[in-house]
Design goal:
single chain, about 280 residues, alpha/beta, Rossmann fold, six-stranded parallel beta sheet, three-stranded parallel beta sheet, 11 helices, about 35% helix, about 15% strand, globular
Length: about 280
């Protein structure tokens, strides 16, 4: 990889990853300007070793990366010195992915104009970030029955068993798309939804960047640090003494998740839909 990068003759490497190996790779590739945080013993490999501001622990993680730019003297919109009140990011969907997503919906029997709600019950980091599948199913059934919407269940191929558990728990069968989409197609499908109900996960951030209303469920992680960026998201959590623990798996009884009822999620989802309308 270093040989390939050297052949491309890059002028600048911005190392968002904190690993020592990332700095070593950029150094091996002979990239003349190498910007990264001064940690993990890698400062000698960097031309711009940026000190970590202590305030970052109390702010959204996006500022951690913006701080990397401003600390190296690069222009960035928003910084620890002048934070943006409504920090957000934006994504767009490629036309080919949009067309593929709509073809996928037609193949699943969904007509154009039908209202869709997405459900994402997985989270790659581990089980401590996942709300209960039977409660996802209860929330999805509520909207299928009271609003007449079609439910799309999202997830990676590794999360297909979780998605199938949600689908099996529903009275009205959803369209299970877990493991059946590319990343671009997933983005296009999320953008087709009126609402996404999700754990703290990659699809949560995609929905925020695509401007899709969502209810984001947090348990073991911190919404202050990694919550969805954007005005159309509502974060739900059940406060307990051990959260956020940032563990992959709960060593006790997953009380941060079991304490959050389906009724609370339904109420929040109704608010998001009403606000969107």
């Amino acid at each position: 990889m270093a040989h390939e990068m050297r052949g491309r003759r890059f002028d600048l490497a911005i190392l968002l990853q904190n690993a020592f190996e990332a700095a070593l790779l950029a150094w091996w590739a002979r990239i003349p300007i190498r910007v990264g945080y001064a940690r993990d013993g890698r400062s000698p490999l960097l031309t711009h070793a940026v000190a970590i501001d202590a305030r970052i622990s109390r702010m959204h993680q996006a500022y951690y990366y913006l701080g990397l730019l401003t600390g190296a003297g690069l222009p960035a919109q928003g910084s620890l010195q002048a934070p943006i009140r409504d920090l957000r990011c934006d994504l767009d969907v490629r036309r080919a992915d949009q067309e593929a997503a709509r073809a996928m919906l037609r193949a699943c029997g969904i007509r154009e104009g039908e209202r869709l709600i997405g459900v994402n019950a997985g989270a790659a980091y581990g089980g401590a970030k996942r709300w209960l599948p039977d409660r996802f199913a209860a929330v999805a059934d509520h909207f299928a029955q009271t609003h007449g919407v079609r439910i799309l269940v999202f997830g990676s191929i590794q999360e297909r068993a979780i998605a199938e558990e949600v689908a099996a728990g529903m009275a009205r069968p959803p369209v299970n798309l877990a493991g059946r989409t590319t990343l671009g197609q997933l983005m296009a499908l999320i953008r087709e939804c009126s609402l996404l109900i999700t754990n703290d996960s990659g699809p949560m951030h995609l929905a925020a960047a695509l401007g899709v209303p969502q209810v984001a469920i947090f348990g073991s992680t911190s919404d202050v640090a990694t919550g969805p960026l954007g005005p159309r998201a509502e974060v739900l959590k059940h406060p307990v003494e051990c959260s956020p623990c940032f563990l992959r798996e709960c060593p006790i009884d997953l009380r941060c998740m079991t304490g959050l009822s389906a009724e609370r999620v339904i109420e929040a989802a109704e608010r998001r839909l009403a606000a969107a309308e």
